[in-house]
Write a structure and sequence with these properties.
This protein is an alpha+beta fold. The protein has one domain: Alpha-Beta Plaits. The protein contains 3 helices and 3 strands, in the order ββααβα.
Length: about 90
Amino acid sequence: MECFYEGPNFLVINPDECIDCSICVAECPVSAIVEEREISPDQAHFVKINRDLSQDPRWTRITQAKAPLPDHAGWATVKDKLHLLEKYGAD
């Protein structure tokens, strides 16, 4: 499962590399991951965001499991946080 990429404050899944095994769905500590076929229409734009950011060479492929960030549970309840996504620099 090396389809995860890490940016400054966000993780993305490259949908073209994902093999749809669904292991990550159960492993996500805040239930933020769903299978692509279960993405609601109002969340569909995240597929393109994930694809685009995972192809940015500044985003690092994650090859080993990492512990959740200490404040992960608090962020799970925050709504409408897309504007907080840091891509890198001013882009």
